From TrEMBL:
Family matches, as InterPro entries: Tscrpt_reg_PadR_N (IPR005149), WH-like_DNA-bd_sf (IPR036388), WH_DNA-bd_sf (IPR036390)
SUPFAM superfamilies attached to this UniProt entry: Winged helix' DNA-binding domain
Span of domain Transcription regulator PadR N-terminal: 26-101
Name by which UniProt lists this protein: Transcriptional regulator PadR-like family
Length: 215
């Protein structure tokens, strides 16, 4: 098989390419419609994927689309506006792309989610923090979790109205519960840190009394 034929068929020497998960995410979005523009993909990602996986930039989306076209998993065409002055590129999943996406969903190894929680890292270093500042940080995080919960709920409600979005709707409802839990976990942590701050204050006060009595 020639290199060009391998690219068009979506694999080389019978093997599917080892694509990053973000490429599969873009390909998966294409599987939901006949054609989508880069703008559509960005809007869809912000509507759903951002709650549990990815909030991409336009440059990331177009880089993945270029990769998918290279392997024959997607095709594109330019659609010119009625006035002939503007054009936009529309992308569609190919049959080999749909087969590859289905293979990835069904057969790729189950990966452990990677949690990089900068707020928890700062709380972990709470012995270096000013207590009131740590309360502000956790308060902001609680507000963020509640905002995301409300947005996920609104998007889930909208998805419920379309039978074709049954699976994204189910995941969005999971996201609602996730952000509810994140909000409650942060509140519990705030209570724990308040207790630690009180203990620290008592130790400091006891140390000061001992210091005064020794003079």
């Amino acid at each position: 098989m020639t290199e060009g034929a391998a690219a068009r068929s979506g694999h080389s020497d019978g093997q599917r390419p080892d694509l990053p998960t973000t490429a599969w995410a873009v390909l998966g979005m294409l599987s939901h419609a006949d054609e989508l523009s880069g703008y559509d993909l960005k809007k869809w990602a912000d509507w759903s994927l951002q709650f549990f996986y990815w909030s991409p930039s336009f440059s990331q989306i177009y880089a993945e689309l270029k990769r998918l076209e290279k392997y024959g998993y997607a095709t594109s065409r330019t659609v010119v506006s009625e006035d002939g002055m503007r054009g936009k590129r529309m992308y569609a999943i190919t049959e080999s792309g749909r087969e590859a996406a289905a293979h990835w969903v069904n057969h790729s190894p189950v990966e452990a989610p990677v949690l990089k929680h900068s707020v928890m890292l700062r709380a972990w270093l709470g012995h270096l923090a000013e207590p009131e500042r740590m309360r502000e940080i956790l308060g902001q995080h609680i507000d963020y979790a509640e905002t995301m919960r409300r947005r996920a709920q609104a998007d889930a409600d909208g998805a419920d109205a379309n039978p074709e979005w049954a699976y994204p709707s189910a995941v969005l409802r999971w996201c609602v519960r996730h952000y509810e839990a994140e909000r409650e976990f942060a509140r519990d942590l705030l209570d724990d840190l308040d207790k630690l701050a009180k203990k620290r204050n008592r130790r400091n006060a006891a140390g000061n009394r001992n210091s005064d009595s020794s003079h």
